[in-house]
Write a structure and sequence with these properties.
By secondary structure, this protein is an alpha/beta fold. It has eight helices and seven strands. It is about 40% helix and about 20% strand. It has a seven-stranded mixed β-sheet with strand order 3-2-1-4-5-7-6, sandwiched between helices. The radius of gyration is 17 Å and the shape is globular.
């Protein structure tokens, strides 16, 4: 599967791409934009899981709170396919599962919809220093997430790799928009597949969007 990123549509990058690949990127953006426009929510807010996998966690969330809207995204087409099948079997109408990249989603999210909660559970830690650039928690990502979230919106993150969590805390503190909460209550909805694989050996953080902080 070809990974089609939003930043690949920048003129400088696009000029170096094959026309057929660039056309696929534009088509994907158009389809994603149309899908996002169709999401209906009375509260104009959603809860988002980035890297939703097979949808184990998000479908449990959607079942528990049927009046709220949930969106799960993943770059793996096979995972999204399985997550959609799970949601269909459960008869869920308040969940949307999309194959896309996180920055792509955040940039194309309509202004009428804002994010109330974002969940990032057991992301790839990319432990080698030369691979740190591949980690999802980066300054541009946090900026894009802040722009798409409501004031006091929450970011929930859990990892079995403590060094990655510390890295994330530092970037959140440096962002000027997110505050890492020293005390928080983690909503225990259901254990994810990765959580079960790690025998519940993990650390968590919760950050709150507060762009007015000094």
């Amino acid at each position: 599967m070809t990974r089609l990123y939003l930043h690949s549509t920048d003129p400088e990058v696009a000029s170096k791409m094959k026309p057929e690949i660039y056309a696929k990127i534009l088509k994907r953006r158009e389809e994603l934009t149309a899908t996002l426009q169709q999401i209906e929510t009375d509260a104009h807010t959603i809860s988002l899981e980035i890297g939703c996998g097979h949808g184990h966690f998000l479908t449990a969330m959607a079942l528990k709170t049927p009046k709220e809207q949930f969106v799960g995204i993943d770059v793996n087409r096979g995972r999204i396919f399985k997550a959609r099948r799970k949601a269909e079997r459960l008869g869920l109408k308040n969940i949307h599962l999309l194959e896309c990249e996180s920055i792509e989603f955040l940039k194309l999210l309509p202004d009428k919809i804002r994010i109330k909660e974002t969940w990032i559970l057991y992301p790839d830690p990319w432990p080698k220093k030369r691979h740190f650039k591949n980690r999802i928690i980066q300054a541009p990502f946090l900026e894009a997430l802040a722009s798409a979230s409501i004031l006091k919106g929450k970011l929930f993150m859990r990892s079995d790799y403590d060094a990655y969590l510390e890295w994330s805390k530092e970037l959140l503190d440096q962002s000027g928009e997110w505050t890492v909460l020293p005390n928080f209550e983690w909503p225990e909805i259901t254990a994810t597949v990765f959580q079960e694989l790690t025998n519940n050996q993990h650390s968590s953080l919760v950050a709150e969007l507060n762009p007015l902080k000094e």
